[in-house]
Amino acid sequence: MACCFSGHRPTPLELHARSLAEEDDCLGVKSMRFPMYTIHSDLLQQMTKIEPHEVLKERGDIVIFDASMGKAVFVSHQWVALHHPDPEFAQMRVLQGAVRHLLGDVGFIPLDPSTEVAVPTARRLPLQAFKTLPLYLWYDYISCPQLEQRNCNEKIEGSDLAKAIESIPSYITQCSFFFALCPVIDSPDESRVLTPARWGQRSWCRLERAVRELSTDDTWILIKSETSLEIVGSVLGFVGGSAGEGEFTVPEDREKFGPVLKQAVMKKLLLCLKSGDLAAYRRHLNLQGVYFRRLGVEPVRNFIPGFEEKSLSHASVAEFFYQNGFTSIRDIDSSGWSPLHYAALRGETELIESLLQLKADPSKRTRRDQPKLGCPPWTSALDLSMLFKHNDAARLLLAARAKLTGGFLPAVHFAAISDNAAGIRLLCSMRCDPLAGDLFGTPAISTAAGYGSMAALEELVFHARSASESGRVPGTSHALFLAMAGGGGSAEMVHRLLELQADVNHQMKRPKIFSQRMLVALKALQHRFGRPTAMSKLCHHWGGITPLMAAMLTVQYEGGAALIAAGARLDLKNDRNWTASTFARDHTLPHFIRDGLLGDVSECQRVTTRALAEAFVEI
């Protein structure tokens, strides 16, 4: 940490960080209220049905985990049925296959495509990391008591199950790895289709993810099939939302989330200071308002002790500088961010207004990428305000004439990524082009489709139609492709884009824009010379690829079912002579996709109808 103090007088933040670094233990790890029961990877792979905790415990198949035993994995998943996590063993078969892949194969787990493109410094995970020590897995139905509550509709306070649930944050911090188990599952009894997007909407899944991202190792692994795994190491890699804004099966759970997240944030701030990572400290300190949305928890502002308010003039700036370790409006920290960028994360209008009055540049852009947020270089305060839905702050920046474009992504793309329809409306009121392209020429409507941002898509469509003499929205076929190539492959997205006259059989051609052509060429070369990722494979097969082929490549089977139900051709081939079935051959397919690729579309139609009914009910 010596580099933090050379060349200038240390700030109170730096002095406090130094004092914490010299302490033996300042994190105060809270003990678990219920032991952390896990199952060894070998026993997990021998299972043919999921039995409750008590049965496995009596048989001796689960053990209390200790770090001396090896490495632990926390498995986060959505239950397939109301009273059983996986009655047909569909999810568990995928988990078993994924574990076999991790322990038996060589290579790497690739980054999610968004992070791979936007954040050059992000790193993939070698499979060797799973083989150095024995592997144990925590899975709720196996690891938490179940039978004591069999005849009860509610969790009894003080029960072992309640204690285990309250210990989940502690379990996550003890685990070396975090799996989000999200294969596409058709759940006939529950009248729904489970997808990664559905997992991301669940409040408990969002809480588990947030606690992981606030732990020492903040990356996590998205499991879409036995061999389709991705490292998600950034906000842009899997945009979900705050835990308090998720879906609650038990409304009373909301009251528990606030204290849990607040404790996790406090520990993360201490950890950042103790390790000397001041940029990460600033990031998490100023994102508290985002973490705590709709949880009734106030952010902690006086984390660094000793602040004394000496003047009422710009008092919020003085406090902000003190807590963030800044001394000037023109400071740039080690990550290439200025005070205004961190203020944009916080989103407080009084603070931003004061910084602007002190001549902060509203259009100043970051100098480097930010891997953990997934933000590319040249990101502005307006971009960050759009991404985190601080629209009042964005209004102030726009009034100060912040530029709408000029970076890797225009501001409207950040709003599209986070499904910020109100932000798009605000930008368009300032004459923003709703079809503005990013550095690679991708229009905002395609970005919205790629992230599954339905509200943002509708807002962009409205403004694009208003600006068009014909009333048509250009680029919907490209948007359909990007929805399947990205993470927006839902039946609802397919249905809406086809309504907007997207071509269900659209075949991609060689990019015309130089930057996009270079990206596709470089990623194709990467794939050819032995570093395959989902993104590199997509670029390798770019010429002639259809939305259905892309859906098979990215394992987006709900969207694939909707395309088949809408009449997507199965005989089309890309420039490498691959059909949709060729892309699907290395994966274990759900029955409706398997039948659909063989020409029987009835099950794809049923699944699509169910998914659309669920989406329209939610609206």
TrEMBL record:
SUPFAM superfamilies hit by this protein: Ankyrin repeat
Stretches forming ANK repeats: 335-367
Keyword rRNA processing included in the entry's annotation: no
InterPro entries in UniProt: Ankyrin_rpt (IPR002110), Ankyrin_rpt-contain_sf (IPR036770), Dendritic_Spine_Reg/Scaffold (IPR050889)
SMART domains in the record: ANK
Taxonomic lineage of the native organism: Eukaryota, Sar, Alveolata, Dinophyceae, Suessiales
Alphabetic keyword roster: ANK repeat, Repeat
Protein's UniProt name: Uncharacterized protein
Source organism, top-level taxon: Eukaryota
